[in-house]
Amino acid sequence: MQVVSVSSLKGGVGKTTVTLGLASAAFAKGLRTLVIDMDPQSDVSAALASRSSHGYSVDSVLNNTSSSVVRQAVVPSSWTGPNDIPVHIMMGSPSVSAHDKPTPTKQELWKLEEALATIESHYDLVLIDCPPSFNGLTQTAWTAADSVVIIAEPGLFSVTAVHRTLLALQAMRLKMSPRLRTAGVIINRFRPDSPEHLFRLEEMKQLFGDHILEPILDETLTLQQSTGAAVPIHRWPGEPAQTIARYFDRLLVKVLVEERV
Ligand SMILES: Nc1ncnc2c1ncn2[C@@H]1O[C@H](COP(=O)(O)OP(=O)(O)O)[C@@H](O)[C@H]1O
Ligand SMILES: [Mg+2]
Prior knowledge:
This protein has about 260 residues and is an alpha/beta fold. The protein is built from eleven helices and eight strands. It has helices at about 15-30, 45, 60-65, 65-75, 105-110, 110-115, 135-145, 155-175, 195-210, 220-230, 240-255; strands at about 1-5, 35, 75, 90, 125-130, 145-150, 180-185, 210-215. Adenosine-5'-diphosphate binds next to helix 1 and helix 10.
């Protein structure tokens, strides 16, 4: 089981969208996939059209990591078909913000890792959709993760946000988890007709070099439509959706095998 955190210390850059795109690629490949919703806004739970029948969520799991609580917090998403392995989701909840402490203890940071140990044999891939800050929730996700994918838009403040995230990863490696890898930076919402975006993309390539994962994801309506309809991009009709789906296939391969520190 590989555990990948999808993070940025900036909101609205596409963490949830990329989590869903990578989950869709994994779903198409037949990987047993679990998505964990660590963001109190719970967007990824809504996008996977899931509802917990028991009221258990990632908040319950961080309070009690026993296998019975973990199993009840995990539900199948609406992404399924007769011969598919369904994508599962560990439900998000606004109440998980109680765990987003500025100075979490080490014991608190190990909670998700402990919880995942109880279901390790059930999944090939775990994708964690993180909140846009570096408090307890992101640190807890990183402690459980093998690697972190950083999401960035081609903009001025994203350059500094990527830099801060790389520094935070370095600190986390020293403090908690020496095994934690930087899978790379996915650039999202690129507009090839924007001179500002072209300039920032070049700047990011120069600054972060090898860390940038190709292909770059363009801004496209089809991603918003498929997300809004709770349909994996690989199942969304039309040529633009298929192009984006192939991009996510390539990004998933890189996220899973590329090794960068
Ligand atoms: N490549 C893209 N093309 C078009 N819209 C996008 C793209 N990526 C994200 N969006 C839209 O941008 C908004 C923010 O994306 P989201 O994934 O929710 O960001 P985050 O999780 O980082 O806050 C959403 O409305 C989403 O549909
Ligand atoms: Mg989000």
